[in-house]
């Protein structure tokens, strides 16, 4: 069976996802952030999560060097933050918008939830690499907010 890549991508876009900024501070580099919607839960015991990065991403070499990453789940009022870290060449974290988590990884302030993770393994996934992470720390924002949702190539609201 042969799949048309554009048609396949559009079909995958019919699955609604949340939006996250993945952060890292690889040794010798400035802390970085990258917007993704490829985040997923894997296991409660041990606590494992994953996300994937395209091998030709400009951030790929930095995440290859990283031993940890942060997952920062965005709320619907943080669309500008999502857009900021989705832009090519704009991945350095802005001073004052992040903190060093207790595990040492950079995490964004005022997000719905952040997970601090050690990278357990990197798994080849075709044109992507899947980064499996063990959650070391978790911070949740106490206020009730709606998540930033992405569906069919656009931001959406929960109703």
TrEMBL record:
Q: Does the keyword Oxidoreductase apply?
A: yes
Q: Which UniProt keywords apply?
A: Oxidoreductase
Task: Pinpoint the Flavin reductase like domain residues.
Answer: 12-157
Identify which top EC class this enzyme belongs to: oxidoreductase
GO terms (molecular function) for this protein are: flavin reductase (NADH) activity; FMN binding; riboflavin reductase (NADPH) activity
The protein's Enzyme Commission number: 1.5.1.36
What's the protein name? p-hydroxyphenylacetate 3-hydroxylase, reductase component
Q: Give the organism, scientific name.
A: BD1-7 clade bacterium
């Amino acid at each position: 069976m042969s799949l048309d890549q554009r048609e396949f991508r559009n079909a995958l876009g019919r699955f609604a996802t949340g939006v996250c900024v993945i952060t890292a501070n690889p040794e010798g580099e400035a802390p970085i952030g990258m917007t993704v919607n490829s985040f997923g839960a894997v296991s409660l015991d041990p606590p494992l999560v994953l996300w994937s990065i395209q091998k030709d991403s400009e951030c790929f070499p930095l995440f290859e060097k990283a031993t940890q990453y942060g997952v920062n789940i965005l709320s619907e009022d943080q669309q500008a933050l999502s857009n900021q870290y989705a832009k090519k060449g704009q991945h350095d974290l802005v001073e004052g918008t992040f903190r060093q988590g207790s595990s040492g990884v950079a995490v964004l302030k005022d997000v719905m939830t952040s997970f601090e993770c050690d990278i357990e393994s990197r798994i080849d996934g075709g044109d992507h690499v899947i980064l499996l992470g063990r959650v070391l720390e978790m911070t949740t924002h106490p206020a009730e907010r709606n998540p930033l949702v992405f569906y069919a190539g656009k931001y959406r609201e929960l109703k």
